[in-house]
């Protein structure tokens, strides 16, 4: 089922953008490809790492400052393969979109709660494949920077999630103590018989390893000898696991962590906002749940410090390359040149709201949003400020309530587990001394308050006794040879009982791990982070950028939006199998919405077929820019009369456009 969802989503992505394969180079494609010396091959390969995205040296005062050498390298590959034939450039864009869709489905499967997995992953993949906001990134060749960055962004996150899984595997296993520590704590009496390893058990162990190797492609060798301590006796136990060995697990942890940093750096070399995958990974690590054992904290901080160090090094290196700040034209970002601080604050605070509504209702799109296509907010009494306030209030409220509910749920789980294990521990301690009647007046101490138990100081709240996982016997000698053979646990010393002290914190973590890992609260927070963090560099709140709104910039944040759609669909259709009317109506509305998105995406692709259709599609949203560019296109086609009309209409909306005056 999972493979079918991934394949269906990727196939839908390819079919929807199939009509872009015969499109040409439009708008920024000409400057980025047709006139870029790094693409044509007039410069050596190392020049890709010295020039900006448009082929201008980064040290040049007129440089745009965008540094995307890996993306330019893909253009160079296209040119070497097919020259200036647009179909190969568009084909590679569509392939990148298909792979990104598949990775989004894998990410949804990794993060969504189990009860909404099937519907949630399907809705997430289909919505990402069909969302009309992606047309600029996929249909425009320049949008490849966002496509490649998104693929590497998701690969980096998925590798780090795998790193966390491998790291936790080493800390949630119970009864894991080394012989050296146990012997140093309490030495084995000298009169204990030596342990014996039977030939039958050795052959059985080898056969189990071979069987695992043949079935799963990997076999876990004998784990370290576990030392279990009971009443002064130390028993050695051999555990078999089909997973990787301790050394291999440690190596894989470092490999996945290095892969996370490598893919994050590669994504940043495709487009700068992709560096936000590192804060996203750190945020995800801290949402994995609270642990109280020191080794877990140590290893988690080791991972976080590695990500932080790599992120700061990457950011420092990128800022060193930037040189002088880029001077953008006032028409590209009018609010950044406004002398009023309040106007800039109101406008830039509203822009994230506007971008969110583009994701929510992507049916009014434009190739360009400059030149006051979004009017500046100059006064506090502008109605859009109310929308801004409501938006941030809702985001803050949802975040606060989600965090509160998640930590409350987690603390309740820990309290319940602690109460249960303390009760069980106290019962066992009492049974050990039941015959002497000296503890707690012969009564079971778990029925009284803990401070009434005379042996309270001997009961450690961090340890409990676990029975054998095979026969479930703990305090007797009924741990039979049959059980030892069937569980590959044939080696005993001094005591055949299968009791061992384990860390209470580890049991506590293992009982709450799955609920925290797959809880809807964690999923909701992660999906919001997917939507917010990659968008932060484009908000104009930290530094000014050369645009007000750009649809292609929403390609990576739309991953979080589609994940939210999948989570909502999974929750609302949870009782679909029961035939509830509400679930059926929602499913019908969802199908209608996805169909509308598919239809508009295919229709929007036609606007990117050539420059004339692209500029005509934006006449209602950005008239001065659209009419000015349309006049230039009509002039090159020899349609002088129509070009004059277009230039005059452009000047009607914005009289100070010098290039339009010159062309007219």
From TrEMBL:
Gene3D superfamilies tied to this protein: Tetratricopeptide repeat domain
Entry-linked InterPro entries: TMTC_DUF1736, TMTC_O-mannosyltransferase, TPR-like_helical_dom_sf, TPR_rpt
Q: Which UniProt keywords apply?
A: Endoplasmic reticulum, Membrane, Repeat, TPR repeat, Transferase, Transmembrane, Transmembrane helix
Q: Pinpoint the DUF1736 domain residues.
A: 326-395
Question: Pathway it belongs to?
Answer: Protein modification; protein glycosylation
Q: Where is the signal peptide?
A: none
A GO CC annotation recorded here is:
endoplasmic reticulum membrane
Its EC number is: 2.4.1.109
Whether Cytoplasm counts among this entry's keywords is no
Compartments reported by the entry? Endoplasmic reticulum; Membrane
Give a yes or no for keyword Transferase in this entry: yes
Q: Which SUPFAM superfamilies match?
A: TPR-like
Segments spanning the bilayer are 87-108, 345-363, 522-547, 553-573, 585-602
Q: What is its main location?
A: endoplasmic reticulum
Instruction: Report the function annotation for this chain.
Output: Transfers mannosyl residues to the hydroxyl group of serine or threonine residues.
Tell me its family.
Belongs to the TMTC family.
Q: What is this protein called?
A: dolichyl-phosphate-mannose--protein mannosyltransferase
| Species of provenance | Heliothis virescens (Tobacco budworm moth)
């Amino acid at each position: 089922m999972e493979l079918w969802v991934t394949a269906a989503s990727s196939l839908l992505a390819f079919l929807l953008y199939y009509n872009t394969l015969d499109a040409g180079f439009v708008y920024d494609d000409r400057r980025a490809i047709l006139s870029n010396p790094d693409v044509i091959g007039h410069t050596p390969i190392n020049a890709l790492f010295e020039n900006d995205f448009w082929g201008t040296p980064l040290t040049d005062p007129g440089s745009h400052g965008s540094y995307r050498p890996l993306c330019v390298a893909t253009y160079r590959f296209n040119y070497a393969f097919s020259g200036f034939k647009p179909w190969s450039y568009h084909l590679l864009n569509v392939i990148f979109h298909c792979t990104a869709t598949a990775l989004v489905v894998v990410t949804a499967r990794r993060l969504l709660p189990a009860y909404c997995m099937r519907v949630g992953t399907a809705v997430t993949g289909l919505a990402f494949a069909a969302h009309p906001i992606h047309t600029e990134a996929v249909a425009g060749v320049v949008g490849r920077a966002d496509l490649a960055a998104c693929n590497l962004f998701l690969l980096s996150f998925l590798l780090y999630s795998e790193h966390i899984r491998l790291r936790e595997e080493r800390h949630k296993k119970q009864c894991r103590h080394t012989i050296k520590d146990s012997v140093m704590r309490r030495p084995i009496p000298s009169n204990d018989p030596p342990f014996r390893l039977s030939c039958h058990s050795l052959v059985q162990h080898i056969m189990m390893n071979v069987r695992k190797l043949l079935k799963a492609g990997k076999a876990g060798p004998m784990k370290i000898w576990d030392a279990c301590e009971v009443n002064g006796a130390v028993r050695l136990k051999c555990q078999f696991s089909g997973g990787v060995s301790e050394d291999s697990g440690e190596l894989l942890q470092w490999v996945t962590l290095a892969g996370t940093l490598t893919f994050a750096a590669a994504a940043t070399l495709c487009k700068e906002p992709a560096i936000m995958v590192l804060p996203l990974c750190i945020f995800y690590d801290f949402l994995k749940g609270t642990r109280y054992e020191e080794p877990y904290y140590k290893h988690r901080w080791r991972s976080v410090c590695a990500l932080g160090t790599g992120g700061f090094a990457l950011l420092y290196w990128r800022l060193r390359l930037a040189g002088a700040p880029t001077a953008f034209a006032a028409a590209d970002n009018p609010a950044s040149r406004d002398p009023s601080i309040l106007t800039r604050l109101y406008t830039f605070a509203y822009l994230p709201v506007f971008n969110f509504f583009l994701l929510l209702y992507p049916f009014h799109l434009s190739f360009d949003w400059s030149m006051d296509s979004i009017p500046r907010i100059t006064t506090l009494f502008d109605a859009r400020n109310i929308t801004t306030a409501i938006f941030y209030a809702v985001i803050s409220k949802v975040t606060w309530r989600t965090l509160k509910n998640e930590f409350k749920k987690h603390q309740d789980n820990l309290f319940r587990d602690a109460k249960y294990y303390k009760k069980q521990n106290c019962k066992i301690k009492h049974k050990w001394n039941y015959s002497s009647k000296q503890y707690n007046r012969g009564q079971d101490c778990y029925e009284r308050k803990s401070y009434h138990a005379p042996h309270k100081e001997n009961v450690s709240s961090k340890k409990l006794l676990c029975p054998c996982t095979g026969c479930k016997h703990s305090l007797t000698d009924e741990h039979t040879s049959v059980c030892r053979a069937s569980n590959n646990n044939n080696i005993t010393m001094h005591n055949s009982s299968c009791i061992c002290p384990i860390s209470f914190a580890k049991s506590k973590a293992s009982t709450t791990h799955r609920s925290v890992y797959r809880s809807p609260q964690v999923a909701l927070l992660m999906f919001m982070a997917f939507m917010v963090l990659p968008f932060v560099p484009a908000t104009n709140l930290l530094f000014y950028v050369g645009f007000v709104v750009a649809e292609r910039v929403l390609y990576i944040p739309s991953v979080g939006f589609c994940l939210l759609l999948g989570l909502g669909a999974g929750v609302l259709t949870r009782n679909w199998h029961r035939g509830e009317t509400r679930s059926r109506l929602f499913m019908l509305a969802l199908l209608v919405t996805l169909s509308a998105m598919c239809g508009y995406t295919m229709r929007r692709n036609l606007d990117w077929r050539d420059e004339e259709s692209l500029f005509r599609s934006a006449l209602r949203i950005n008239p001065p820019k659209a009419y000015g560019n349309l006049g230039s296109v009509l002039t090159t086609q020899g349609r002088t009369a129509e070009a004059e009309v277009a230039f005059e209409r452009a000047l009607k909306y914005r009289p100070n456009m010098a290039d339009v005056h010159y062309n007219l």
